[in-house]
């Protein structure tokens, strides 16, 4: 926030608007994260108190890890928004969006009951993960090339 206050006079109207939106979104997502963590804690404590946290019970672990992944996804989303506020990036980067989508699909696979899910749905989710993984690899490879070229180098053509 201190950096934002220092930079505020030199920002354009749109950049100021973007900063305000980022602060509001960060606060709202922060509230959602806090609520999700509190809910997760209550559910885990209830499971322990009532003796339902049985290692052999697959559905309980699916539910708990699904909730944990939800919190991790929200944290990553919030982190990507905060990078705009810290002036590390001017817009949300494609790599971050792909990472969040991969986390969401991984969460889906964790909570998925394979015995009750259509095979075509599983194939579709697997294809989506492979496609996102390939795009992530390509974007990561491009970032590596840009880093090797140096900060003053012109971006590669093509």
From TrEMBL:
Compartment annotation: Cell membrane
For this protein, the parts annotated as crossing the membrane are: 20-53, 59-78, 90-110, 122-139
- Chief location of this protein? membrane
Alphabetical keyword list: Cell membrane, Membrane, Transmembrane, Transmembrane helix
Signal sequence residues: none
Q: Which InterPro entries match?
A: P_starv_induced_PsiE-like
Its membrane topology is listed as: Multi-pass membrane protein
Name this protein carries in UniProt: Diguanylate cyclase
């Amino acid at each position: 926030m201190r950096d934002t206050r220092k930079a505020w006079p030199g920002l354009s109207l749109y950049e100021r608007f973007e900063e305000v939106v980022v602060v509001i979104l960060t606060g709202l997502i922060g509230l959602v994260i806090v609520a999700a963590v509190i809910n997760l804690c209550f559910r885990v404590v209830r499971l322990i108190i009532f003796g339902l946290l049985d290692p052999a019970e697959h559905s309980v672990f699916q539910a708990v890890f699904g909730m944990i992944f939800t919190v991790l996804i929200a944290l990553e989303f919030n982190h990507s928004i905060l990078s705009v506020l810290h002036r590390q990036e001017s817009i949300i980067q494609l790599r971050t969006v792909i990472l969040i989508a991969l986390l969401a699909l991984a969460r889906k696979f964790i909570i998925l009951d394979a015995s009750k899910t259509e095979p075509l749905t599983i194939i579709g989710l697997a294809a989506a993960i492979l496609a996102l993984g390939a795009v992530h690899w390509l974007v990561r490879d491009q970032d590596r090339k840009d880093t090797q070229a140096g900060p003053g180098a012109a971006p590669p053509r093509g």
